Amino acid sequence: MPEGDTIWRAARALQSALGGRTVTAFGSSLPSVAAAARRFGLVGRPVAGVEAKGKHLLVRFGGGAVLHASRNDRKWHLYRRGSRWRQPAHLARVVLEAGEIVAVCFRAPRVELLPAAAAARHAALVRLGPDVMAEAFDAAGARARLRAAGDVEIGAALLDQSRLAGVGNIYKSEVLFLCGLSPFAPAAGLADESLDRVVATARRQMRSVPHRYWVYRRAGQPCLRCGTSVERRMQGDPPRSTYFCPACQSLPPKSLARE
Asked: What DSSP string describes 29-81?
């Protein structure tokens, strides 16, 4: 599953390449998207902007059409017109040309072209919690939504996009390690300071480029802090891999839990 930071970087690259340019050609292997493009008269309209919302990428066009693609961080490629593509053409879901620039969306599991009003009330977008990558970030709102998860383990709560949008499996494990918190502690049992630290660490880590992983995919290897073997356990519904150090991230005694 992609992380919100890679979606955010993909959106920035597309915005830089396409923002303000006029669409000179548009094609899609998805009949519903191709039909909608004709209905909206997309060719000849400007690209009004590209943005990321959690793990969703939105391309807005003049006239009100919105291209919505989800879970597609590394699926967008940018090319000069006439250059060779890095993936086969039959895998392309969307091909958007703006003069010499060609943006190709490969293999995205979900792509749709919607009126702006429909995009604004899209169920998957409306339910999103505060976006960890957004410039205007509601940290207090993110803390409140995590606490509202109740007895749900914090590792599972962090993957719930309605609580904190953008965090995926990598940063769930990394952030909780850096905060010294057990992934299996109930979210509502953590102190405000702990939840604030989780939110701030997620934002800081995802807006930087990590040079190494502390625990992610390091099961059986020594912890980089204490030398204890890193463990992997399935967590959540559906189950996802959680990596943690049992020594650095032990469950707190009940006496230290939030009252």
From this structure: SSHHHHHHHHHHT-TT-BEEEEEEETTEEEEEETTSEEEEEES-TTTEEEEET
Report whether 163 contacts 145 (CB < 8 A). yes
Catalytic site residues?
2-3, 55, 240
Can you tell me whether residue 80 is helix, strand or coil? strand
Give the Cα separation of 163 and 147 in Å (integer): 9
Task: Return the higher-pLDDT residue of 253 and 246.
Answer: 246
Ramachandran angles phi, psi of 42, nearest 5°? -65, -40
Let me know: does 23 contact 96? Beta carbons within 8 Å. yes
* Omega cis (within 30) before 253: no
Q: At 255, is the pLDDT very low, low, confident or very high (cuts 50, 70, 90)?
A: very low
Which letter does DSSP use for residue 26 in this model?
Answer: E
164 DSSP β-pair partners: none
Q: What's the half-sphere exposure (Cβ side, CA atoms, 13 Å) at 198?
A: 32
The C-alpha atoms of residue 246 and residue 219 are separated, in whole angstroms, by 11
- Which of 112, 108, 22 lies closest to 72 in space, CA to CA? 108
Structural tokens at position 32:
């519903």
Segment 165-176 shows an average pLDDT of: 96
Residue 189: count of CB within 10 angstroms of its CB: 19
According to DSSP, residue 219 is labeled T
Would you give the DSSP letter of residue 230? Answer: P
Assess whether pLDDT exceeds 80 at residue 105: yes
Kindly report, residue by residue over 10-25, the tens digit of the pLDDT.
Answer: 999 999 999 999 999 9
Q: Quick one: which of 114, 82, 99 has its CA closest to 46?
A: 99
Structure tokens at 105: 């969306």
